[in-house]
Design brief:
N-terminal domain of MutM-like DNA repair proteins, 7 helices, alpha+beta, Helicase, Ruva Protein, domain 3
């Protein structure tokens, strides 16, 4: 599913192309994607408003909205979750496309409208008064749109969490280190690939009990998490990590050449270098 870097690309797309445009119409008819709201409830809450800001914590994204007319009282918060493979597609009044979200890879390519993007897969749409749109394209229908989402259970964002806070939150209990990283209440935004990349960068075993890490190792973990996250954002997604292409049977660590090892850790298929990650 989209991890923090992919969700950040969707947030940035909204920030670039979706803000301060008056909403004329809303298609919220998909009762699964927009649950628990009945059709028309999100529409009634948003028509006449603009999106005033796009924000993210971990894999969760939301937009703040303006008042209606001359009212300065802010509108509801619009929460958007990309699910397993969602993308945000925004068109200008001239039809120019800005997009972000889950990496499409070779099947769809990058950067334009395509026949494979069937309209039925647009699960939620804002239509602006200038004729452009903001759509949640979600072929697998696993995303979520809701008003005023509750984000209180999320831990601090993996991109910005400080070293001391990460050490205090991750270094508790006997759970495997990777399981702690994947727990969104501990730190928000780390998925399976980002966890494997981070631990490979830090030269730490995903199976190490979290409370066995020294202060120095926890600081190394923090630095590796920030570096891996920022690199993924800059390069287009978690699939661009240095070790990602080497996660497979018969493949070898790109640093030392040892054959990569696999097991299930934290409920996820996990690859690591047995020579360097201890």
């Amino acid at each position: 599913m989209p991890e923090l870097p992919e969700v950040e690309s969707a947030r940035a797309a909204i920030e670039r192309a979706g803000l301060r445009r008056r909403i004329a119409e809303v298609d919220d008819a998909d009762t699964w994607e927009c649950r628990p709201h009945p059709p028309g409830e999100i529409r009634d809450a948003l028509v006449g408003r603009t999106l005033t800001g796009a924000f993210r914590r971990g894999k969760s994204m939301w937009c703040e909205t303006s008042g209606v007319g001359r009212s300065r009282r802010p509108g509801p918060v619009l929460g958007v979750h990309l699910g397993m493979s969602g993308r945000i597609l925004i068109t200008s009044s001239r039809g120019e496309l800005t997009e972000g979200g889950d990496w499409e890879g070779g099947r769809y390519g990058q950067g334009g409208e395509r026949p494979e993007r069937k309209p039925v897969w647009d699960r939620f749409t804002l239509t602006f008064t200038d004729g452009g749109t903001l759509r949640l394209f979600d072929k697998r229908r696993l995303g979520r749109v809701r008003l005023d989402p509750d984000l209180s259970a999320l831990g601090p964002d993996a991109q910005t969490v400080g070293a001391d806070e990460l050490a205090e939150r991750v270094g508790r209990g006997r759970a495997p280190l990777k399981a702690r990283l994947l727990d969104q209440t501990v730190v928000a935004g780390v998925g399976n690939l980002l966890a494997d990349e981070t631990l490979w960068q830090a030269r730490l075993s995903p199976r190490r009990p979290a409370d066995e890490l020294s202060p120095a190792e926890l600081r190394t973990l923090h630095d590796a998490l920030h570096a891996a996250t920022l690199a993924a954002i800059e390069h287009g997604g978690v699939h661009t990590g240095e070790v990602i292409d080497f996660r497979g049977q018969g493949r070898h660590c790109p640093r030392c050449g040892a054959e990569m090892q696999v097991a299930t850790v934290g409920g996820r298929t996990t690859w690591w270098c047995p020579q360097e990650q201890r």
